[in-house]
Amino acid sequence: MNVLVTGGAGYVGSHAARLLTAAGHDVWAYDNLVFGHRAAVAPGRLIEGDLLDKEKLADVLRGKRIDAVMHFAAFAYVGESVTDPAKYYHNNVVGTLSLLDAMLKTDVKRIVFSSTCATYGEPESVPIGETQPQAPVNPYGYTKLVIERALADYARAYGWGYAALRYFNAAGASADGDLGEDHDPETHLIPLVLQVALGRREHITIFGDKLPTPDGSCIRDYVHVDDLASAHISALEKLKPGTELRCNLGTGRGTSVKEVVQACRDVTGHDIPAKVAPPRAGDPPALIADASLARRELGWVPRFTSIKPIVESAWKWHESHPNGFDA
């Protein structure tokens, strides 16, 4: 297929674009480079543009004879979404509706949407299955839920096929170490811990060590970025008119903050100082996916099921790219 990857110069989008190409698809990355990186895209495959430019999107969809869209482009800082919700609703909702309008105009009827476990808010139980209520507790989660609802309505009204993939904590880097995480500011735990190992931070802060978990620190479900990308490709290849897929993507295995820090010490061989701070407000003690639906519907089985190989891949990237893509 001819596939347009919005946000294709970003972290997950760039990995998905690479795996799509390896699978034989003709791939174009569409990105405004606000957070994406030109160097993360294969030469000659980047189209610079904004989601709000509906006419340019339509021209690209038509000119490249696009069969399907893989939509990653979004602002994704939870804290910022609370302090500046207008920015998030305008980009994540209005921008995505602009993309959907361009798809309508050019008769592109297949889309895989990058959603998030943040649509669930505070979970009723763990592991979290797709039948749990979606009640986001921040604007970022709401913007993703709004688009999930819009896609369901578009699918039923216009005969589209779509997949909304709700993933948990994306982590890791490509096996060859030349594609990885480069955010500014960085908020993900593993890169922050590895920055301590590289001497770029003095210590890592553990928010809470007396939570109702085995070691007192928060537990999260870390899923390798290439596993996420492979799930998107599996979903894309299943789409046909009327298909509606809504799946969690995670390993079903939780890892605590303290376990992540120790794994980084083991992998890097560096002493990584850690300090404890009070828990952050609204930070659930544990978020773990029930991804059995993705296994049934997509045949998706993550290759990385423990934290150490995920950290090893991330360290290979960060050690060789201490300044990210700017190196």
Architecture overview:
This protein is of the alpha/beta class and 327 residues long. It has helices at 11-22, 54-63, 78-83, 85-106, 139-158, 189-197, 225-238, 257-268, 292-298, 307-320, and strands at 2-6, 26-31, 46-48, 68-71, 110-116, 161-167, 169-171, 204-207, 219-220, 222-224, 244-249, 255-256, 274-277, 286-287. β1 (2-6), α1 (11-22) and β2 form a beta-alpha-beta unit. α6 (189-197) runs parallel beside α8. The two termini are 33 Å apart. The mean pLDDT is 97.
The Rg value, from CA coordinates, equals: 19 Å
Q: What's the overall geometry?
A: globular
Side by side, the strands of the main sheet go 3-2-1-4-5-6-11
Summed over residues and divided by their number, the pLDDT gives a mean of: 97
* Structure class: alpha/beta
Short description:
By secondary structure, this protein is α/β, with parallel strands linked by helices.
